[in-house]
Amino acid sequence: MEKKEKRFSGHENEENLHDRVMYIHSQPWRIVLAITGGGTEAIGQLLRYGGGSATVLEAIVPYSPEALDTLIGRKPEKYASPTTVRSMAMAAYRRALSLKENDDRIHSQNLIGVAASCKLSTGTAEREGREHEIYVGIQSFDRTVVRMLRLTTGRSREEEEHISACMIIDSIAKECGWNREMLTDRLLDRGEIIEDMEATVPREIAEMLARPDSIMKNTDLMPDVVELELREGGVADRPEVIFSGSFNPCHQNHIIMARQAYQKLGKKVHFEISITNVDKPPIDLISLQERLDSLREYGDRDFLGNIYLTVAPLFIQKVKLFENATFIIGADTANRLFKTRYYRNEEDMRNMLAEFREKNIHFLVFRRKEVGLNIEQEISDLCEVVPLEEYEDNGTSSSAIRKELNIE
Question: 75 CB contacts (<8 Å, ≥6 apart)?
Fold first, then answer.
């Protein structure tokens, strides 16, 4: 894109904005927006020309760190980042599902979560090297999209706000099928390029994410599960040894634990990832694809089985899917799983342990460096502990790998 003699102003863009917004309103999509750090002008534009009620279900501005932390269920390492905006978009999509749960006229395939997290000009003196960035996330039924733009310097806060808003409107229009000129085409300078990243999943996985909370969080119901091949042409054994985790990413220590379990139990180890969390939005589809790719890097290991995607973040849900199974867990997970303080009361824990025994569930517990472990006598029949002498824990963790790679 060639450098322009003068930047295209928001006023000159007015007619194009109107056309784009009216196009969005003419489509069957219903959206929830969550915008922070800049770009809130997009909310006003969507409601400005009439017809907004046909499109906008809700718009929120989680501007303070506390508000954004609450929205995504955690404190992110960076508030303006691809990972954060994807989590925001998933939270917005889940909110849209909640709002239309009892509306038979609206299908989950017509709902979109839209998010933006921006780091723009402060309008005052800034520290040297501070980047001005715009991240827009879109979460629809079967797709996660993130769009990223790094701005050059020399614009006012107002100009950067307008670009942010136009990028949000463009992203919504593009998701709705718009394939002509974008609003930002006339606003960006040479070298300013919007980068897109996306991931799409099959319908059976998308439908798992489209379940309303009333179903997804009901521990009395059988959770959804989808089996994926770890390697092409892999044989599907009955899953008797399950390694549950987030695998964000999978690393060598996970594989060492799986090999040790195979040697002890003589059965292939299958991986399980719950795409939903207890107190956070579900995993976005780009993150899910990255995790699956990290697992498939080890697909040539003959002691590994397949991958199971579930909506079972709690072990009381997992055991409904995998009866007569042994679960591989670390000492930190065991400490949480078997301590009364993590439950509403002691009776809840006793009921859970009774169900484990009824379904013939066992746990292979791997000790971790610098993590204490105390398996009480009343649960010793459920657990076999692998001592550090048999398992070389070198301290590698997924979080350490993400930090080293400068990703969240």
Answer: 65, 69
At 128 the pLDDT is 73
Residues 273-291, mean pLDDT to the nearest whole number: 95
Instruction: Please give the Cα distance from 198 to 80 (Å, whole number).
Output: 18
The pTM of the whole model exceeds 0.85: yes
| More confident site: 75 or 398 | 75
Residue 147 vs residues 11, 115, 164, 168: alpha-carbon distances, Å? 24, 10, 11, 9
Say what the alpha-carbon torsion angle 68, 73, 75, 77 is, to the nearest 10 degrees. Answer: -100
